[in-house]
Amino acid sequence: MMRKALLILIIFSLLLTPAALAQDMENPTIAILRYGRTSVNDLTKKGILDMLEAYQFINADERALLDEEEDLEGERINIFWGDAGMDLPTANIMVENVLDRGADILLTLHTPLTQVTANLTQDLEQPPLIIFSIVSAPYTAGIADAPCIKQGNITGTQAQAPYDQFLPLARLQDPDISTVGIMVNAAEPNSVFGVAEITKYAEALGITVKSAPLANLSDVPVATESLLDSGVEALLVSFSTVEYRGLSAVVELAAEYGVITIGNTVGRVNQGSHIGAGFEDFYREGVVVGRMLTAHLEGSMDVAALSINALPSFGVALNLDAAAEAGVRFSDELLELADYVIQNGESTQDLTPPSLADMPLEERRAADLEFLAGLECTPEMIAEQRAALDAAE
Questions:
Q1: What is the third-level CATH fold of 163-278?
Q2: Sequence-distant (≥ 6) Cβ neighbours of residue 391 within 8 angstroms
Q3: How sure is the predictor about 9, in pLDDT bands with cuts at 50, 70 and 90?
Q4: Could you tell me if 319 and 262 are in contact, meaning their C-beta atoms sit under 8 angstroms apart?
Q5: Distance CA 228, CA 253 (A)
Q6: What is the reported pTM?
Q7: Whole-angstrom Cα distance, residue 153 to residue 144?
Q8: Which residue in 58, 163, 196, 229 has the fewest CB atoms around it within 10 Å?
Q9: What is the DSSP pairing of strand 29-34 with strand 78-83?
Q10: Residue 49 Cα distances to 24, 63, 279, 304, angstroms
Q11: Residues 325, 217, 88: CA angle, nearest 5 degrees
């Protein structure tokens, strides 16, 4: 009798095993993909993971693994990582591999990578959900046509820099400035978009923008020298990831000419740029992605039907050490505007890691859903955006 009962128990357990395995396989699989590692996307990553932990999709032990960017087969979700090393061919291969692995949700960071991902998924019968962040040019890149006019599997948040505030900084430093230089990589929509926006606002201020093309890292010093030799009074730097990688050469050459450099994010001062200015709330980018992601995982909202979020931010920082090496003294007006400065090797930047406000989960969920409800695409919004696109054509 005991042997018969044991045999029944074994058979029963074997019948359950495939079901149990299937249940494990049903955990949503999330791929967190970036074009290349920077300090700003580390902040975005923290915002995403903070939200997943707050909603209890990951526990403390799993969070520790994810902080080290270890792949996770978790109790509730699976996560794996990808980094293209700021190389476009690698980005294509990475996304193709991710699609082969069957990821349900792709979190993409940066414009070039999101553009690649949108292109590779547009013809799939059942494409994964794509939620993007740190994307400055979603419309120039063809990721979307308008906030509500996009592929049905795509949403995200635009890192919207108020370019109209960028060039006035040069005027605060030098009221008589008339010519600035900038490099453009035609292969990067974020670079093309940034240069176009800067040029538009420069014309309104009576400032001439001279541009120099670049395509790879070896072009950076050549393009920099050509702009400096043309007599530009300031260099606007790092609208291209290629230029970002060669920023030290840009700053070094500019110092030899006594020309200031203005980086397009606040943190550029930490790499030697004299002025850093631009979008700065990269942690919030991750929190917004986390709001969309957790709402999707909980099934409380069709996040793919949400419009692309865009909340601008602007910050300014000054590198007094780099300026002194170039023989530049910042104006009092610019010093008063700075959020932080670097002087004598020390920074006044508040390095306290950003974090979520402490609140009960139900209260957080209500606030997050209210935020997302404000992004819902109504028929009126869609019609208005289509009409605007038609008029522009």
A1: Rossmann fold (3.40.50)
A2: none
A3: very low
A4: no
A5: 8
A6: 0.88
A7: 11
A8: 229
A9: parallel
A10: 21, 7, 21, 20
A11: 135
Place of tokens 């430093």: 173
381: pLDDT confidence band, cut at 50, 70 and 90?
Answer: very high
H/E run at residue 370: helix 361-373
Please, which pLDDT band fits residue 1 given cuts at 50, 70 and 90? Answer: very low
H or E element in which residue 388 lies: helix 379-392
Q: DSSP labels for 113-136?
A: HHHHHHHHHTT-SSPPEEEEEEES
Give dist(CA 196, CA 328) in Å, integer.
28
Here the tokens at position 301 are 């909202």
Q: Which residues of 31-47 are buried (b: 16+ CB within 10 A; e: fewer)?
A: bbbbbbebebbebbbbb
The CATH number fitting domain 27-160+282-310, selected from 3.40.50.2300, 3.60.15.10, 1.10.8.60, 3.40.50.150:
3.40.50.2300
SS3 319: strand
- What is the C-alpha separation between 6 and 296, in angstroms, rounded? 43
For residues 78 and 31, is the Cβ–Cβ distance under 8 A?
no
CA distances from 266 to 24, 41, 130, 263, 382 (A): 43, 13, 28, 7, 35
